[in-house]
Structure formats: structure tokens, C-alpha cells
Design brief:
Layout lengths: L5 E4 L2 H23 L2 E5 L4 H9 L10 E5 L1 E3 L9 H8 L19 H10 L1 H23 L12 E4 L24 E4 L9 E4 L1 H5 L3 E6 L5 H9 L16 E7 H4 L12
Parallel strand pairs: 1-9, 2-3, 2-5, 5-8, 8-9
Antiparallel strand pairs: 4-7, 6-7
Helix pairs in contact: 1-2, 4-5
The structure holds 6-phosphogluconic acid.
């Protein structure tokens, strides 16, 4: 890990300002070269940290934004566990991103998954595949309009990291970590509730132009030391190595406390 990609802040307010600076810069650059800005967002503390400063910025071409979810819990969109619902409350309700450019799971496919859970493995496979294929179609509609693409290449993926080292809904030692094809995967046994989710695969994450991890609080100290400073680590977040893109870490001092890497405070 190049230490210059690790940005630490004494408080989350400063972190949010720099994260907004990076997002605005990437939004401008992407719109200039590709006439759109494609972003993947995660749940947890990320939507609030992202939006707290960004939502007040002016001159952002929000109508050029296309937003996907790096992972989503398979619950209705107005459920308290929904990552969409969280992002809506913290972010979407405050900025004019066109609703049809915020790509959610199809909630009409959820009841058949619920029924399938009672029926058993084969039915679950079928129902979850429909949800996965629907979300992949949404990705295809944005990323594969001109030429077929092997993987979508996001302008920016915003990722959290759990105290166990998970990112997206890719959990330690889970078989989903071995996927080398496919854009979206179903997980029915997430160790973090709720158990049923969809997630971007590692190849999708690693093909992004830019990936920003955001982690705060002392509960992340040990796992960050393992992810950032142990090159042998097999934790999911440690498997994020952009193929050609850039990787950034945004940490508060509490989370970064055990890192011996150099600390810098400004992104641009
Ligand atoms: O769907 C989820 O469960 C979340 O997206 C999850 O993966 C989150 O990003 C991490 O657990 C970090 O969460 P915090 O930033 O709140 O620690």
C-alpha cells in the first residue's frame, strides 16, 4: 500500500470535506471525458460521511450521476435495513440526482425469494438468480451500451470495511471471494444480518477507475493494520487491488491509530 493513498483526519467532519473534494474532482473529470459519473455506494456509516459536506456543494452536475449499490440487503426499499433507504435519507433526498439514475434492486422480486426460502435450495437458487440478473441488466444498461464489456468500470466505488474485514457483502473465507466471473452475486448466509443480500463481485470492484475505502472509529484499528500492512492478508478488503485504477483510504485518527504508514491530510 502506497502510504500517500492513506488520508487521515482528526475528526469525521474534516474527513467528509476531503471525501467531498475527491468526489467533486472525480465527478468533473469523468463528466469531461465520458459525459457521466458512475458511482457505487455502500451502506453503514458511509452515506452520512459522504453526504454531510457533498450535499451542500454547488456546481455539481447531478444529472450526469449514475448511482449503484456495491451491496444491497434483500429487503423492501423502505425497510430500515435497506441500503437504498439509508442512502435516500442521508444523500438522495438532498441532491437532485434523477431518480431513474439511482439503480435499486427490483423489490417486486423479493416475495418470490421469501417463498423460495421455505421451499429449499433449488427454489432459492432460481429466485435469487432473478434478482441478480435484474441488477446485472441495470449495470449492462449503463456500462455496455456501445461495446460489450467484460466488467463495468466505475468512476468511483465508495466502500466501507467491517471490523471482520468484510467489504461490500464479501465476507472472510466465503466462497464468493473466489468468483472470477459475474458482476453481481447472491449471498444467503451473510454473517452480518440480514442474511440475504446481493453484492458486487471482487472483479467488478477491482476494475473501477477509483476506489475509496472509508473507515472510522477505534473498532477498526486492528483490522486496518491487517488489511493495509499485511501483504499476505486474505481478508476481503485486503483483496481489493485495482487492476489499473487508484485506491484511497479515508480514515479518522482513531481508526488509523495502529498504522505505521505515513499519514497525509490532503487529497488534492
Ligand atoms: O450492507 C452492509 O452491511 C454494509 O454495506 C456494510 O458492508 C458496511 O459497509 C460495513 O459493515 C462498514 O460499516 P460501518 O462503516 O458502519 O462500520
Amino acid at each position: 500500500m502506497n502510504a500517500s493513498n492513506i488520508h487521515t483526519f482528526s475528526n469525521t467532519r474534516e474527513l467528509s470535506v476531503d471525501l467531498a473534494d475527491l468526489t467533486v474532482k472525480l465527478s468533473e473529470e469523468s463528466i469531461k471525458s465520458r459525459d457521466r459519473f458512475t458511482v457505487g455506494i455502500s451502506g453503514g456509516s458511509l452515506p452520512k460521511l459522504l453526504a454531510s459536506d457533498l450535499k451542500n456543494r454547488e456546481d455539481i452536475e447531478w444529472d450526469k450521476w449514475h448511482v449503484f449499490f456495491c451491496d444491497e440487503r434483500l429487503v423492501p426499499l423502505d425497510h430500515e435495513d435497506s441500503n437504498y433507504s439509508l442512502c435516500k435519507k442521508e444523500f438522495f433526498d438532498h441532491v437532485p440526482i434523477p431518480g431513474d439514475q439511482i439503480y435499486t434492486i427490483d423489490p417486486s422480486l423479493l416475495p418470490q425469494l421469501e417463498t423460495a426460502v421455505e421451499k429449499g435450495t433449488e427454489a432459492i437458487e432460481e429466485a435469487s438468480l432473478e434478482i441478480v440478473e435484474d441488477y446485472e441488466q441495470k449495470l449492462i444498461s449503463v456500462f455496455a451500451t456501445v461495446n460489450a464489456v467484460k466488467f463495468p468500470v466505475f468512476d468511483l466505488l465508495l466502500l466501507g470495511v467491517g471490523p471482520d474485514g468484510h467489504t461490500c457483502s464479501l465476507f472472510p473465507d466465503h466462497p464468493l471471494l473466489d468468483l472470477t466471473i459475474g458482476w453481481v452475486a447472491y449471498i444467503g448466509d451473510s454473517p452480518k444480518p440480514p442474511p440475504r443480500r446481493i453484492t458486487f463481485t471482487l472483479p467488478v470492484v477491482n476494475h473501477a477507475h477509483n476506489i475509496a475505502f472509508v473507515a472510522t472509529g477505534e473498532g477498526k484499528q486492528d483490522v486496518l493494520k491487517e488489511i493495509i500492512e499485511n501483504p499476505e492478508s486474505r481478508l476481503p478488503a485486503a483483496l481489493v487491488h485495482p487492476v489499473t485504477g487508484k485506491l484511497y483510504w479515508f480514515l479518522d485518527d482513531a481508526a488509523a491509530f495502529k498504522l505505521t504508514s505515513l499519514k497525509v491530510t490532503s487529497v488534492i
